[in-house]
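Regression test attached.
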Amino acid sequence: MTEPLLQMRQISKSYEGTRALRGVDFSAVAGEVHAIVGENGAGKSTLVKILSGAVRRDSGEILLDGRPVEINSPFDAHHQGIRAVYQEFSLVPHLSVTENILMGQMPVTRGGWLDWNAAHRRAQAVLEEIGFYGINVRTPVSRLSVPHQQMVEIAKALLATPRILILDEPSAVLSQEEVTRLFHLIIRLKQQSTLVLYISHRLEEVFEVADRITVLKDGELVGTVRSEESNQTQLIRMMVGRTLEEIYPQRRSQAGEEVLRVHQLSRDGVFENVSFSLKRGEVLGMFGLVGSGRTQVARCLFGADQPTSGQIFLHGQPFRPKTPRDAVEAGIAFLTEDRKRNGLVMTCSIRDNISLASLSRMSRWGVLSRRQQDQQVLAKVRELDIRPPQLQRLVRQLSGGNQQKVVLAKWLLVRADVLILDEPTRGVDVATKVEIYQIIRDLAERGVAILLISSEMPEILGMSDRVLVMREGHVAGEFSQEQATEEGLLALAAVGSQVA
Amino acid sequence: MRNVTQTSPSRVASLKERLRAGGSSRRLYETLRHHWADYGVIVAFIVLVIITASTSDVFFTERNISNLLRQIVPNGLISLGMLVVILTGGIDLSVGSIVALAGILSAGLQDDIPLALAILIALAAGVVAGAVNGVLIARFKLAPFIVTLATLGAIRGLVYVYSDTPQSPTNPAFRRILGGSVGGIAGSLAVATVIMVICYPIIWFFLNRTSAGRAIFAIGGNEEAVRLAGINVERHILAAYIISGLCSAMAGVLLAARLGIAQPSLGSGYELDAIAAAVIGGAILGGGGGSVPGTFGGVLVLGLINNLLNLYNVQSYYQQILKGVIIVFAVLARRKQQ
Ligand SMILES: Nc1ncnc2c1ncn2[C@@H]1O[C@H](COP(=O)(O)OP(=O)(O)OP(=O)(O)O)[C@@H](O)[C@H]1O
Ligand SMILES: [Mg+2]
């Protein structure tokens, strides 16, 4: 094999008491796509953040083209042609797309003024070159949907062709369509002999795009395999130390009476005439491309936004939540898709975050019962295997997947009749996914009505009793579990006509 | 029917192991790290005490100590309210004007109505002022800085409209009780000090052990997440400003009782000391951090600096410079910790 472009030797890193990496030796060659996989908290993000200068290593060295380099800050990394797209967004929310993409490199006119026209054109060009259309470069990033934010983040990293491109779970927030485009992009970069480090929990994806795969476990490197010589079962065994036979529970629960009915619900400019019903004990999958309006419908059901027309019936009674508080009191829980923006309080502890939606239930006369709180929170921490299981730990210090589990735990604690899950397994590792799917099924069997919004096709197919497909703000169609196929769903979501 | 082979037993075992690994000594270490800001303040406090005690023989006299404890009362109360507001991600600049409003009302009204009623009205005025701040900020989504800057001016104006000359309390019981000492074994310990000290555990309990308190903590970290958790954010923000108004009003009443006169200019500039105390004690402007013990430490440190420099007859300008330096260091120390 050719001389590796990148060598990381004996890399170790501890965060106040947690050993995130111990003596990791990692190397990769130019022009390859090298995937890094492992359980939540295995140290993947830490490893690539050390490479990109976002985190300082405790010991070890980094070599590029065989020569040791000092990377102590993101600035150093940029200098070496290393660019990263992090799991947690690093965009400036109130600045425009253009400013975010061209940050620090805004074009100026001869007089020294910012050349806005040139800047917008440049940003637009970068986005289109990598195959992302339909983003207005003048809008502030905070108004973009999560997937669009992710695309901006990627565009930002590709302003100049990097020597090493780090993608930390890029697909977690993208839908199938965009993932395909991302893969085309990756292949193009490969031809320009860029090394792409690709972190993902979706193993199908990893096998599709990666040349080699490195597995991390508990901060140590387990091994590196060539993807054509390996398979999912082997990889999972390397990751979790055991085999998982079934990812999706085979059980199906009996749907009961109708709990929620949505009739001709519309919100101007967002979605129109959406009607469906949700029954006790049923998992209703909601599939669609990004921007198809799924999250918006959910927000209206939850009182986070107001519909402009149409009706909602809860247990047969007209229901129009004015605030999320109304919805929670009526027994609706809503796990939001963007954990950082509206799911978590990063500066608070695991305990505070998990109990946030159940505070009133844990207190009498407004006084919290610490005993009850700890009991309930700890039960969820165990059930979802949140690591480390220290209630006092700030959520900011958790790995991405564990943060997602905290949000999920918060809503599982609420004991709602209707549970809306918007991308519940985003960034969660395989083993935990399996646990979460079991929990969702258990809840359904106990009579909870579940609306599962997901862009992950296997998840929708594996979990749903019925699938609703949304396209451009309309319900494009509905499938029973037997009818639902990958091709059928995709065709309907993309074209809007039932080809299958 | 389970479809997953061998999950639970190994998981539970490894969980137990991990729990044990994070046992008592580690926990102590974690707590220490976590509360670094609090302990930093304590260290500063001890250093100051040692410096003062070793260079001045007046410092450790009962008279000086009880004086010191009496002098920190207004800032002690105001900072506590300020902390609650800062935790929500806000700020209250109007505290000094509320001090004057409550002080002058309690001193001026007692001529005509019973003392207790006068005090009650003064405190109610603080609550109302806080509620006005709170409604404008929570309900109408105005920036806390702007709103309280406006009420800072408006309330001060109101005070001058009520009386542009100093008001002297006429009821002797006012000065004797609220401005006096506890007596008995507690000797010259001021009643005002006792009242202030009692407020600390109350607010601590409120913030740490009630659902409203936890919500206030969380709001400063991510308001939208709290709203989507089904919590009435507006009401909690309103409560925070009311608490701040009430604390300031208490400070005003106690100050009037101690001084035996209430100037319409009473309390101007107090907001800065209150913000400083909270920040020295670990509060993060914009929300997301802060603690009651830390704030108490901040109040003590600021009080000590004043006391120390007074003992040496240092001009107050130097006191301000030193305060500035200490605030910068407090914030730097926390930076480093992160
Ligand atoms: N800022 C931090 N402070 C303290 N501990 C941290 C911090 N960031 C990460 N850790 C810890 O370091 C370990 C490795 O985290 P890392 O983010 O690298 O995991 P990961 O493999 O990327 O996981 P995921 O798949 O969930 O994203 C975890 O135990 C995590 O709790
Ligand atoms: Mg990660």
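Expected vs. actual: identical. Confidence is low (pLDDT under 50) at residues 1-23 of chain B.
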